Amino acid sequence: MQDARFINPLHLALTSDLSLIPDMPRSQVKYVGRFAPTPSGPLHFGSIIAALGSYLDARHHQGRWLLRIDDLDTPRLQAGADDKILAALETLGLHWDGMVVYQSRRHEAYQHALANLQSRDLLFPCYCPRKLVKGRPYPGTCRQREVEKDRQHALRIKVAPGTVVLHDLIQTEYRQNLLDEVGDFIIRRADGLYAYHLAVVLDDAWQGITHIVRGADLMASTPRQIYLQQQLAVELPVYAHLPLAVSQTGVKISKQSMAKDVLLLGAPNTVLFNCLNFLGQQPEADLSQAPVRELIQWGIEHWQLSRVPKLGSIIAPEKYRTT
Fold it and tell me: Is the pTM of the predicted complex or chain greater than 0.85?
């Protein structure tokens, strides 16, 4: 279970729902899933694939499905995008449990974790420019470097030798020699923002997440999260990585590729029907005109993770493509 040092009354005050408090014995909550979008724009087809897949897997197992807004990367945020995301999920019949958690309200928890790692000599300041390591493993340049007071720096965690193994429920087993393939990685950026890997590990542990169903683009970064989970002594969730929706040329459908708001490209029930097909669930043709509630109920009752294609990416239906 999560170390009590990472929890304080401020964080618990975000919700009155005791099932979200990590001190509850995990055996009492068999399945807790989540969807954690970044509010940098509206939900596109790829976003809905991740949301629907995680939702159906949770509900099929009589589990809880939580919603967290990952709003730490402030330069990427779009005003009002969080409200649009919530409204879109409601329109698509994807109703979450408990209150919505915002990462931007959990800075104190992240700072506590940094202090914990620092006290164990697991962190070091890094002054290297991004271009030094872009696309390459970090060479350890600053690991033994003398600390330069008052100079802006990132914080990296020291990575130990060894292979991290991810046993994914959909994709094949993924193995990564973290030191050789990634190197010491950043957990607080030079601009002072907490890195995604630190925040997601702490928030998933705090919320008691047992299963993470998300896009296959995050598989390569999962070993970093597993490593942090081990260092922070929190329970490891079960992972399942869904195939990505891509264009004809293999470009991921994303906000960066100017993907459109999925609800502008068709009726909610049409979007859901197409997503169920994309995820290999094979809904009957007559369900294409069914109301949202009926489609969601069918999806919950017939969901089979084994039917999800074991592929890293799949070409999306033409109207959802961006290039």
Answer: yes
